[in-house]
Amino acid sequence: MSVSTLFRSYDALLRSIHAKFFENQLISLSKAIDLEKWWKNWSMNTKNYYYNGVILLICIAGTERLKIDRAGFAERLIEACDHANVCPMNQGRTIKLAEMMGVDQRSTSYWFSGETLPSSKKRERLSEILNVSLVYLETGTGDISTGVKSEDTSLPVVPLSFIKNNDFSSFEKKSIPSNIEYSKAAFISIVEDDSMSPIAYSGTEIVVDPEATLKNQKYVLIYDSNENTGYVRKVMLLDDKIFLTSLSDQSSYQQLELSHQEVIGKIIAIYNVY
């Protein structure tokens, strides 16, 4: 086996291990962060594939599982839903959260009762749509809020067909929860139909920040000049190119069509209004 082939084999093996342990959250948060930093440094130097591959296996072998108390998580999930003004339990909360998450009602019912835990990816998604701290949701430590409280928590409400305007000063403003951190360029848009389900439905308020840093697998607001409107998409950044996925089929991506599509900003909060 050639050296280059050996390197590729170790790379594939270790990336598989990396995905298994990090995505499924089988190690503690603090050690995951340390290993993640180490992994990025290591991956820049192919000469260290074998040596650091052994170190990674040793590190993983010595880490402990992230233990989440199911009953405690259920209590914090209820608190998070209250925090995000999701409808009460006896008024369809399990159904509404299932719609927001794109899962069946049985799953959310089990989460609320403490019978099961959502996967690490679903816990991250919960923290995003409910706008609460992931660490708090999982462990109960720290503060439930994710952002910095602002003195002025009102943002202009901009129709999707006007999101290309440079001046939003003439639009009516609306207050949002004070725990969101955003730039002065942020604004609110209200979804007009169910075409963006299961992420957003008719009446859903989305908070968009044009100055927020784009990240892989996060939701953004796209303006389409052909349709003169905006819509939500998930992004994938690769080699300075932007790829988008539809909400109904997130398994395939298409490159951003610069001729008529433009990323307006990152969606930093989603609120379903009842």
Record keyword descriptors for this entry:
18% strand; 434 Repressor (Amino-terminal Domain); 274 residues; alpha+beta; single chain; two-stranded antiparallel ribbon; 3 domains
Structure description:
It is built from eight helices and nine strands. It is an alpha+beta fold. The protein has three domains: 59 residues; 70 residues, lambda repressor-like DNA-binding domains (434 Repressor (Amino-terminal Domain)); 118 residues, Umud Fragment, subunit A (Ribbon). The longest helix is centred in the first third of the chain and has 21 residues. The chain is globular and about 50 Å long.
In short:
Helix content is 35%, strand content 18%. The protein is α+β, with helices and mostly antiparallel strands and 274 residues long.
DSSP strand (E) fraction? 15-25%
Please bin the fraction of helical residues.
25-40%
What would the CATH topology of the largest domain be?
Umud Fragment, subunit A
- Look at the structure and name the CATH superfamily of the largest domain: Umud Fragment, subunit A
Distance between the termini: 62 Å
Large-scale geometry: globular
Radius of gyration over C-alpha positions, nearest whole angstrom: 21 Å
SSE arrangement, N to C: HHHHHHHHEEEEEEEEE
| Widest beta sheet: strand line-up | 3-4-9-5-6-7-8
Oligomer: single chain
Poorly predicted runs of 5 or more residues: 1-11, 13-34, 42-65
What is the total domain count?
3
Largest sheet: 7 strands, antiparallel
Instruction: Please state the average pLDDT score.
Output: 75
The secondary structure category is alpha+beta
Total number of helices: 8
